[in-house]
Write a structure and sequence with these properties.
By secondary structure, this protein is mainly beta. The chain is built from no helices and 14 strands. The relative contact order is 0.27. Residues 4-14 have low confidence and may be disordered.
């Protein structure tokens, strides 16, 4: 975990990348735990992260079953609580592929060990690519503070004190698009660049 290497950018300057999780190698999923809407009395969704491998490949698969409320409130997710210092990085990258009717996911981050309610989270929605694996770029400047799906303030994510990272399939309570049912997100790696 947390493999760091240096790259030469097009301008010749040194830039670093920090693998938070490289599931194509030896990183496991033991530290990832479910964080779905079942934390509330009306929640009925389920999520799990597993390793899928054979002789030719290895990756993680996020399986989600989303059973939202009629207004779209609901989420199926997993998270890893661990300290990450992402100082000096500008974005999170995830190499992934989605399958299922809906492919809207979000990355959920928290900082300063404020990992549970009533604290808010920093979130960014992305559409998973279908058919082929591709990298999704998620600039840290686009992570915004939310509480239960609603934007709450203008505080920024403290990259030096990230204390959890999660992946969710969202119902879309305050979104135009509502999602429900099963979905998968195959993940090769997650890194900061």
């Amino acid at each position: 975990m947390a493999n760091t290497s240096s790259l030469i950018s097009e301008t010749g300057a040194m830039a670093s990348e920090q693998y938070l999780y490289d599931f194509t190698k030896t990183d496991g999923v033991d530290m990832w735990v479910e964080q779905s809407d079942t934390v509330r009395d009306v929640g009925m969704s389920k999520a799990v992260l597993v390793i899928h491998e054979n002789k030719g490949f290895r990756r993680a698969i996020f399986f989600a079953l989303l059973n939202p409320q009629p207004n779209g409130a609901g989420f199926a997710g997993i998270r890893a609580i661990r300290r990450y210092d992402l100082t000096g990085h500008t974005m999170l990258q995830i190499q992934c592929r989605g399958q299922g009717q809906f492919n809207g996911f979000k990355i959920v981050m928290r900082h300063k060990n404020l990992n549970d309610e009533p604290n808010y989270s920093f979130e960014q929605i992305f559409q998973a690519p279908k058919d082929e694996f591709a990298v999704r770029n998620l600039p840290f400047s686009d992570f915004k503070a939310y509480y239960r799906g609603k934007r709450v303030n203008n505080e920024t994510l403290d990259l030096s004190q990230v204390s959890s990272i999660g992946i969710q399939m969202y119902g879309g309570v305050y979104q135009v698009v509502k999602q429900k049912g099963p979905a998968t997100l195959e993940i090769d790696w997650i890194k900061a660049v």
